[in-house]
Amino acid sequence: MSASLVHAIHSDFQQRFGYEPMLVRAPGRVNLIGEHTDYNGGFVLPAAVDKEMIFAVGLNGGTAIRLVAHDLSETFELASPAEVSLSDTHWANYLLGVVAQLQQREVEIQGFDCVFGGTIPIGAGMSSSAAVECGLAFALNHLLGAGLDKMELAHVAQKAEHTYAGVKCGIMDQFASLFGRDGQVVRLDCRSLDYAYFPFDTKASRIVLCNSGVKHSLASSAYNTRRQECERGVAVLQQHYPAVQSLRDATLEQLEAHRAELGDVVFRRCSYVVKENLRVEAACRHLEAGDLAAFGQEMYASHAGLRDDYEVSCEELDVLVEAAKAAPGVFGSRMMGGGFGGCTINLVAPQHVDEFIASVSAAYQQKLGLKLETYQTTIVGGVGAVPVVVTG
Ligand code: GAF
Q: What sequence ranges are listed for the domain GHMP kinase C-terminal (predicted)?
């Protein structure tokens, strides 16, 4: 955790509002494998990482809601919780969406102040939005004594994203931010919400993210379209196999048998999802066996599926994955998150990390003329309160 960031957010709050806030840290996430499976009732393997949002939040004793985006030096104010609705201020909507969701759950919102800022790169596919939602949900739950458990908070945050950010996301990002555990990845069954932690051995490999720097403006609409295509696939299969409630239940044989009826696009989207679920299960077995080479092969296959069948990759991400394949000490590489830009996630042998970064950066510059930003991430615990920093 960045002590200087905590200090900056804390002082900003005190200077503006003159009283002592609660401090909360909400991490971003990586996902080792299992992309676009969460909203299909499937499996994911994320972890919370050391890129984070820090919040200072306090009840102000009145009715006003005062929000401050520390990094942008922007403020947003409402006279009372009754005025909460979708706003024209993009960043405020992530917070207002959380308030609206708490209200829907009959939590009585009192006036509060919130200053937040962080180190999660925006649009890099590391879920800065989920961190923003989860951080405020956690703080308000605590300050208002609402008594929601972590899974309920994940649903509050997910619904905020649906209703106020317009992205019909699954539960992975909010779950990872809230349930992350130091040094461990977590396999989540997005249907039953059962989960299991797996130790991530940093002596054997490191997680390096390569940020393509591409932020696709159509990402949220394309994301929602993918979700609809999967739902269409389920609707077709259900006519033949009533037990299929989501793509989690479907098999490749069933898809093949109704290929013409599904149509080429829906067939490819659904095949990708069914295969990706199988890959997550295989990847977890490889992780338990300590077989990183086999794990990495699942990652490459995941990327190929996202590129060719799910069609959510882009040239920059493909170049980064190919460059990773050619670099020394790499177990696996693939695009991460919703797609159309953002980062690739790479598993790299610790002794080769520097060489890997140099090699992929050079290839990115040479092939596309672009400068690469990379992050060596550490797996950390999920959302939680942080002690107030005492300064001299
Ligand atoms: C985004 C969404 F928010 C997640 O729910 C998930 O679907 C992911 O894209 C793709 O796996 O991060």
A: 287-364
What does the pLDDT look like over 289-312, one tens digit per residue? 999 999 999 999 999 999 999 999
Residues with a catalytic annotation lie at: 173
How many structural domains are present in the chain?
A: 1
196 within a domain of the structure (yes/no) = yes
- The protein residue with its alpha carbon nearest to ligand 1, atom 7, reads 36
- Within-domain flag for 273: no
pTM of the model: 0.96
In a domain, 272, yes or no: no
The CATH number of residue 147's host domain is: 3.30.230.10
Does ligand 1 have an atom closer than 6 angstroms to the CB of 339?
A: no
Q: Are 45 and 31 in contact (CB under 8 A)?
A: yes
Query: Which domain does 16 fall in, by range?
Result: 3-200+380-386
| Nearest atom, ligand 1, residue 125 CA | 12
Distance of CA 38 from the midpoint of ligand 1 (Å): 7
| Rounded alpha-carbon distances, angstroms, from residue 5 to 10, 70, 121, 167 | 8, 10, 14, 29
Under the banding of pLDDT at 50, 70 and 90, the label for residue 123 is: confident
